[in-house]
C-alpha cells in the first residue's frame, strides 16, 4: 500500500456544487441514484474527472443527460474515471448497487439491529456512491429515502424534512434538504423502527430548535440525560463562544454497532448507544459524565468541524483537537475543573505519551498516512486539545476568544488548515506565534529539566529551565505555570525581577533551549510547585525528596499539583520497593507514604472526588512506561503489596469512610457522585484483604444497590475474591442484565480486568460465550481491549495471550479492519518489554504481516511496528 503525503496536497480539479441523492432501500440490494452538478476549477482545463468509489456496482452513468458508453469511462476497484468532460459546469448521474446488509466494516451504509445507518468519516461516502470524497469539496445535499413503511417507519437524513409521501406497494419516502454546503464525510442517513424522545431549545436569538433523540423502542426510558446534555451544551456554546445552532432540528440516533464514540453529521448525529442511553440502574456515574461530554463534543463540532471544516485529513486536529478542548472546558465548568483536568491528564499521559514512545508516534498534524482511519489517535485528539489549551494559557481566556471570533469571521463556510487557525489566534492578539508551529510538526513529548536556586542574601529564587531537544528538532514554545510555597504551605507572592505586580501563579514562557527566571522578594527558601494545572503536555524533571512531595501533597493550592505530588510520591515508593523485590529483599512500606495517605483519608476539607483520585495509585501501565524495560511481574507484585499494605495500615479509616458515604441516597449531583467514588475506593482497598468481613461488605453492596456505579464496583471487587461469592455474583449479574447489551458489556469487562491468575483462561472461555460477538465493536472491546490493558495478565510470560490477540486481529482483519487495527496496536510497544516477551510478540506480528489479504489499516500499524 502507498503512503499519502501532506506536502503533496493539491486543490481539487473539480468542485461538486450540489448532489441530489435517491436511496431505494431493499433487503437484497440498495440502489443509490445520484445527480451531481460539477464545476471544473478552472475554465478550459483538460483533466480527467476521477471519482472515488469502493464496493459499488455501477448500473448507469449519464453526463449532461446522455448515457455514457463503456469506452467513455473506466471503472477500477476504487475509481470511476471519465477522461474527457466538458470545460463548463455539467451534470453527472450515476446509479449504483450496494449491499448494506453484508457490510461488517461499519463504514459507508450498513445495518445495525435491523436498522440502516451510515458512517462516512473519514472516507466512507465512497462506499455509498461515486464522489470526490475529500473534505475540501463542499456540496449542497438533497436526499430522498424510499423504504418499506412497516420495517422502516423512520427515514432521516441531514437538514430539514421538506417532503414525504407513500407509494402503493407498502413503501414510503421522505425527502431531506440540507441548506449548508458540506463535505461528504458529514453525510448521514438512518432508516428504521425507532422511538423519538423529543424536546426543544430556544436559542439566545429566540429561534426554536426541535431536539430529537432516536433510539430502539425498548430504550425509550434511557434518553432524558442525553437530551438534557444536548441543551446544556447548546447553551454553553452560546455563552462561552457566542455560537448559536443554525438548523431548525438537531437529531441524535443511537445505534448498537459503531466503530467509535459518535459522529457529528450535520443535523443528524449518529451515536454509539453507549454514549446516549442511561438510567441510574444501568449506567455508572462515569457513563453519565461520558454521555454529557460526547454529546457536547459532537454538538460543538457544528461550528468547529462543520461550519469551518478541514481542508484535508492531515488537518484533522484542526477540528478534533479544538473540539476536544471545547468539550473538556465544558465538562470542567459543568463538574469540577480539577477532577476533569486530572482525568484528562491521566489519559494523555497513559495513552498519548505512550504513543509518542511507539513506532506509531506522529505530530498532531501528521506528515503522511497509508490509512487515514489509523490517525484518529490520542495524539491528534488529546495532544491536539492540549495544544489548543496552550493558546488559551498564553493568550488568556479573552485573547483566546478574540482568536476564535476572528477564525469564524474569516473562515465560516470554508475548508481550512491548522495554519489558518494559528494565524487567527496570532492576528487577533497581535502576537508572534511562528515558533508555535513546532507543536504541529514535531512529534514526541518535550522534556524539560528544571533546577531551582535560592539566594538567601538577595532574597531571590531562580529557576533554570532546559529543554532536551532531540536531533533534528527545535525548541518548543512552552508556557510553564509556577507557584512557590512557603514553609507554612501558603503560596508566596511572586514577582519577577522584570515586573512590578505580584501573583500567586506565574506563567513562564519558555522559548529558548535554556532560560533562567528570577523571582524577587522571596523571604525564605521556597518549595516550587511546577507545571500547575498541567500547563503544557510535557515531561518535567525536577528532583525532589519524599518529604517535599508529601508536603506538596498536603498543601499545594493547585489541586492538580497536589494530586500530582501524591502520584510522584507513590511512584518513588513503588520503584524503590521494586528494586528491593528484584534484589530478593523483604518488602516494607515507607511509613512516610502510608502517613501521607492517612492525612488524605482524614482531610475533611478535600472534595470527595479529588480525594478518591488522590487515593488511587498510578496504574501498572503508567509505571511501566517510566521504565527502560517494563518489569511486568515486579510491578504487579509490588503494586499489589502497596495496596494491601495501605488496606491493612488504615483498615479502620477505610471502614469509616466506607460507612460514612454508603448511605447517601442516589442522585446525579456532584456531591452524591463524590460519596460513591470515595466509598468505592474504600471498598476496593478493604476487599484487598479478602476476608469474610470485607467480602460480605461487597456482597451486601452488590445485592442492595439501586444504581450501576455501586453494583459494578462491588462486582469488580468480588471477581478478585477467592471464595464462592464471585461465581454467585457473576451469575446473578448475568441473569439480571442479559437482555441489556450495554450492561452485559460491563459483565465481560469486569472479568477481563481481574488480577487473579486465571483471567486469561476466563477470557478464552468468555470468547465462546453465546453472548460474545466479535462483529459488535462494543462487545469485542469490552472483553478483548479491556483484557489487553490488564498488564500482568495480558503479558503472561507464556505468550498465550499474544497468540490469542493475533488470532482475533486476523479474524477482524476481514470483518472490520478499523477495529482490527486498533486491536493490533497493543503490540506497538513490544520493544519496551524483556527479550523473551519481545520475541513472543514479534512472532505474532510477523505472523500477521504474512497474512495474504491484510487490510491497509492493519498493514500500516504492523509494518511500522516491525521496522
Ligand atoms: N469525527 C468523528 C470521527 C469518527 C470516525 C472516524 C473514523 C471511523 C469511524 C468514526 N466514527 C466517528 C467522531 C468525533 O471525533 O467526534
Ligand atoms: Zn470529534
TrEMBL record:
Domain of life (superkingdom): Bacteria
InterPro entries noted in UniProt: Aminopeptidase_N-like_N, Aminopeptidase_N-like_N_sf, PepN_Ig-like_sf, Peptidase_M1, Peptidase_M1_dom, Peptidase_M1_pepN, Peptidase_M1_pepN_C, Peptidase_M1_pepN_C_sf
Reactions performed catalytically: Release of an N-terminal amino acid, Xaa-|-Yaa- from a peptide, amide or arylamide. Xaa is preferably Ala, but may be most amino acids including Pro (slow action). When a terminal hydrophobic residue is followed by a prolyl residue, the two may be released as an intact Xaa-Pro dipeptide
Enzyme class: hydrolase
Pfam families in the cross-refs: DUF3458, DUF3458_C, Peptidase_M1, Peptidase_M1_N
GO molecular function: alanyl aminopeptidase activity; metallopeptidase activity; zinc ion binding
Cofactor: Zn(2+)
Coiled-coil annotated spans: none
E.C. designation(s): 3.4.11.2
Domain (Aminopeptidase N-like N-terminal) ranges: 20-186
Domain Peptidase M1 alanyl aminopeptidase Ig-like fold: 444-542
Gene3D superfamilies: 2.60.40.1840, 3.30.2010.30, Neutral Protease Domain 2, Peptidase M1, alanyl aminopeptidase, C-terminal domain, tricorn interacting facor f3 domain
Domain Peptidase M1 alanyl aminopeptidase C-terminal: 547-867
Keyword flag Plastid: no
Membership in a protein family: Belongs to the peptidase M1 family.
Function: Aminopeptidase N is involved in the degradation of intracellular peptides generated by protein breakdown during normal growth as well as in response to nutrient starvation.
Protein name: Aminopeptidase N
Species this chain originates from: Beggiatoa leptomitoformis
Gene name of this polypeptide: pepN
